[in-house]
Amino acid sequence: MGRSFQKPRGTQDILPSEQKYWLFVEDTFREMMLSAGFGKISTPTFEDTNLFARSVGEATDIVGKEMYTFKDKGGNSITLRPEGTAGVVRAYIEHGMHKEPQPVKLFYFGPMFRYDRPQAGRWREFYQAGVELFGELDPTTDAQMIAVMMKFYEKLGLKDLKVRVNSIGDTRSRNKMNKALIDFLSAHRRRLCNDCKNRLSKNPLRALDCKERGCQAILDEAGSMLLDNLTPDSRNYFTKVLEYLDDMGINYELSPRLVRGLDYYTHTVFEVVSGNESNALGGGGRYDGLVKTLGGPDVPAVGFALGVERVIDLMKKQGVGIPEPARSDIFVVQLGDEAKKKAIKVIAQVQDAGFRVAHALGRESIKGQLRVADRLGTKIAIIIGEREVHDGGVIIRDLKDGTQESVLDRNLLKAIQRKLKENK
Ligand code: AMP
After folding, report:
1. From CA 196, how far away is CA 80, in angstroms rounded?
2. Is 197 in the pocket of ligand 1 (CB under 6 A)?
3. CA of residue 166 to ligand 1 center, whole Å
4. Helices assigned H by DSSP within 248-353
5. Is residue 192 part of a domain?
6. Which atom of ligand 1 sits closest to the CA of residue 84?
7. Are 115 and 263 in a shared domain?
8. Which residue in 393, 397, 399, 423 sits closest to 411, CA to CA?
9. Which of 202, 255, 377, 411 sits in a 20 to 30 Å window from 165, CA-based?
10. pLDDT of residue 81
11. Is the CB of 170 under 6 A from ligand 1?
12. 282 lines ligand 1 (CB under 6 A)
């Protein structure tokens, strides 16, 4: 035997028994977003490395430490997407969507890649469901985004979630925040980790996102350094967002240190958590400067993304019931060469009539084939032997109670219909 392989660290195989969760989450997401007027967009899983450097930001952990970046055979620097927004914004600009009537509302579902330290709820390949809305700068839009996200969790059957919100304001607010942070952090420079020492000059806001305990303790003292430095306009905007959240009865908590791990945010940022878990289930915010930064016109935007693995983990923890995915209705069993030929025709006929059909034509014994049917949970079997070929009929067997009857080929579809009805 040759050497065997294992999946790469931080990745997973999603086996058929797990797929009911995945199908449920993706279907629920798609149905909800389509009915709310969002259009689905799919973008490549890899992009020009500069796209992420320019949008997510050079000083972030994602760009600085976590990207899967490589040179392709043409010498271009390529990166497996670590998040979905940058690619969607690139596509929005590239396809001139800013010329369409705004808002443009998009959603996506797909794998993201981050070279992170694998642990509970942290994968190197993980799926995100995400939403982006372009062309509206209004506090109702931010509040609506949060409401849409919470509604989705509710549709999945998840309970006891809350959303943390904060504002990092407009550019002027952020300049003030950065100044105040530089003053504050410089006074504690010696106690900061090396990354934060660097951030101090490059991008002080990033220090708020540092995972080092020492830095966290210092920043706890920084308290409401962000909210205190909002310009009156930005403060006014944020107050309105909170008012709308109140009006909609959304369970939120003000989180004055929340900045999120990406540089492109402006004004409202938010993330959703369950109970006292530290891993966020999802998050998002407004990113008014990003379309312009990436070479497009000055178009405001807001969006969110949520991690599908974490959502599914929580569904399991909370014991959320999932509808079983559709199974095959009928299993076709055959015995002998002639019977196999007839089975192929019967399978096609029954499939064309709209039934879901399974089979194991490569297996010879009836017992072996019925075992496969049992594993699939199929309700009825069509059994074809030499005798049925000769008589121009088939046997229909009820796999629950073992009763069976012979029917003529011409009555087959009616008989199946009757049998499945009885079996409901
Ligand atoms: P972010 O793009 O960092 O704002 O992340 C949005 C959401 O994606 C998070 O709240 C998580 O649910 C999920 N997520 C981010 N990184 C990972 C990861 N390494 N493994 C699993 N899920 C992740």
Report:
1. 26
2. no
3. 18
4. 290-293, 308-317, 337-352
5. no
6. 2
7. yes
8. 393
9. 202
10. 98
11. no
12. yes
User: What pLDDT does residue 244 have?
Assistant: 98
pLDDT at 210: 85
State the residue for tokens 């079983």.
324
Question: Is the domain of 26 the same as that of 115?
Answer: yes
Q: What is the pTM of this model?
A: 0.89
Q: What is the pLDDT of residue 220?
A: 82
Report how far residue 412's alpha carbon sits from residue 406's, in angstroms, rounded to the nearest whole number: 10
Does the beta carbon of 305 sit less than 6 angstroms from any atom of ligand 1?
yes
The total of structural domains in the chain comes to 2
Whole-number Å distance between alpha carbons of 200 and 215: 12
Q: Are 87 and 37 in contact (CB under 8 A)?
A: no
Instruction: Using the structure block, give the residue that is written with the tokens 């006014």.
Output: 236
323 near 24, Cβ under 8 Å?
yes
Residue whose token pair is 């992170």: 116
Q: Ligand 1 within 6 A of 281 CB?
A: yes
For residues 32 and 150, membership in a common domain is answered with yes
Residues 247-270, mean pLDDT to the nearest whole number: 92
Nearest CA to ligand 1 atom 15: 307
CATH code for the domain of 267: 3.30.930.10
Query: pLDDT band at 317, cuts 50/70/90?
Result: very high
Which domain range does residue 342 map to?
A: 330-419
For residues 403 and 310, membership in a common domain is answered with: no
Give the C-alpha separation, 208 to 25, whole Å.
Answer: 32
Helix axes 171-187, 194-202, angle to 10 degrees: 140
Q: pLDDT, tens digit, for every residue of 1-58?
A: 789 999 999 999 999 989 999 999 999 999 999 999 999 999 999 999 999 999 999 8
For the Cβ of 82 lying below 6 angstroms from any atom of ligand 1, the answer is no
Residue 360 lies in a domain: yes
